[in-house]
Design brief:
The structure is a homodimer.
Chain A lengths: L7 H12 L8 E4 L1 H9 L4 E7 L3 H8 L7 E4 L1 H7 L2 H4 L2 E5 L6 H5 L5 E5 L4 H13 L4 E4 L9 H7 L8 E3 L3 H10 L4 E4 L17 E5 L7 H4 L3 E3 L11 H19 L1
Parallel strand pairs in A: 2-3, 5-6, 5-9, 6-7, 8-9, 8-10
Antiparallel strand pairs in A: 1-4, 2-4
Helix pairs in contact in A: 7-8, 7-11
């Protein structure tokens, strides 16, 4: 049992949570029981699960006897210092992040979702969840977007980040080039002035670009892209995750109706 | 200038934020510059704006010279104790809550949105924002749902709670009776087994019920209601705010296409 906050594994974990990314060892930090289940059903390579002493029986029950997952029990007080126990529920899984090629993320049959500066990890995670739900080929996290490995993004994605192909780290010009090279037409969501999604041809292979909550889509992705504006009344904008969900839903509805 | 955390107004404010509701004096707590603007453009009766000393020039700029809003300047350190300054941006507006009748909330032309146990204030706020955006008649906060006056709900609603008719405090059986008495057909969102929203008749006057994130819709509202399930693949569910946004969007799309 770990009883010292100075334990190197716990220190590495705290740093990862603080900076919102992978641990120094290169593992993703998945909080909650649910994400442990999702990591297992998604065949992620689980390195270890850190379990608060008081949550051990529940975790063992959940995993079943045949589980080969390595558990490290952590004294409750020490666990609380490493994590937000309320949101972690006393279990934190460290797992090897999945790895995808740009072709895997961009070239499947559904639309590719491009996150261009989305800041809120809850929004970004909900968008990836909607991307999986509506059959997107994958997700591109353009530089300047919150990390897919931010523990809060992972939590909001509710397991979808373990399955949906995604790539990260491309500059916005590189992202644009990656789409152009593959002949993928680009739709850009705009606060005003674009076509209604129901009037655009979203049944074909395309990329759907969602901009940052404050500044929208940046110029290199806007250039030559077709604008999409969800028809609304009264509000300045929708919540970004709701807007992305609606555009992905509409694309899926058109594909289903067309077939 | 207020320099004491023991000031009765500040104590009242802290209690309202802690319990997620109105102040003892019956005012709603609206954080951020944006919500102050929205309160003014929505003709809310603004009681007072509390302003952190360091934000005073910016608030005065924003309000303009002709403003008659009463400002109370609060020493920065004292302001920080009363609020989460990062999310409040140094300004907190106290305003009289709008008041609506059940008929106003339920009887307009668009669908009535019924929140039946939604727990997360960010989700509830985003749903009200979508309700306004897509022309809902109003929103019913059934007992057991997060308060519309939780400062986090108000923030996520981005001003829509100042304009969309809503009522709160009905028990679930009372909510059901209020809909039945008015002859409003009920659609209930379900994780599985319901009709696709695109195949349901959402162009007619109806109520759309969204259940709690963990337990869905409760029995008295489910009874006799028609089920709606957004067609998804791979995920257990969508983010609740995204799901509500999609159903409201679909209803609006059908009304527009039908007309």
């Amino acid at each position: 049992m770990l009883t010292s906050p100075a334990n190197p594994l716990l220190k590495d974990l705290r740093r990862a949570i603080a900076r919102g990314g992978l641990t120094d060892q290169g593992y993703l930090v998945a909080e909650t029981f649910h994400l442990l289940d999702e990591a297992l059903r998604s065949n992620l390579e689980v390195k270890v699960a850190l379990v608060a002493e008081s949550a051990l029986a529940a975790v063992r029950d959940r995993l079943g006897r045949s589980s080969r997952i390595r558990l490290i029990v952590v004294e409750d007080a020490v666990f609380r210092k490493a994590a937000d126990t309320e949101s972690s529920q006393g279990v934190i899984t460290l797992a090897a992040p999945p790895s995808w090629t740009p072709d895997q993320a961009l070239c499947g049959p559904g639309p590719a979702l491009v996150l261009n500066g989305v800041q809120d990890p809850g929004n970004a995670g909900a968008m990836v969840r909607a991307a999986e739900a509506f059959g997107a080929s994958g997700v591109l996290f353009v530089k300047g977007t919150v990390s897919p490995f931010n523990p809060k993004t992972l939590r909001a994605a509710a397991g979808s980040l373990f399955r949906v192909p995604f790539i990260q780290g491309l500059e916005v010009e590189e992202a644009r080039a990656a789409l152009d090279q593959r002949g993928i037409p680009v739709y850009v969501t705009l606060a005003r002035g674009g076509a209604a999604p129901a009037d655009a041809d979203l049944a074909r292979k395309c990329a759907l670009v969602i901009g940052s909550e404050a500044h929208g889509v940046s110029e290199p992705l806007r250039r030559g892209g077709a604008g999409l504006t969800i028809p609304t009344a009264g509000v300045e904008s929708l919540n970004a995750a709701a807007a992305a969900g609606i555009v992905l839903y509409e694309a899926q509805r058109q594909r289903t109706t067309a077939s």
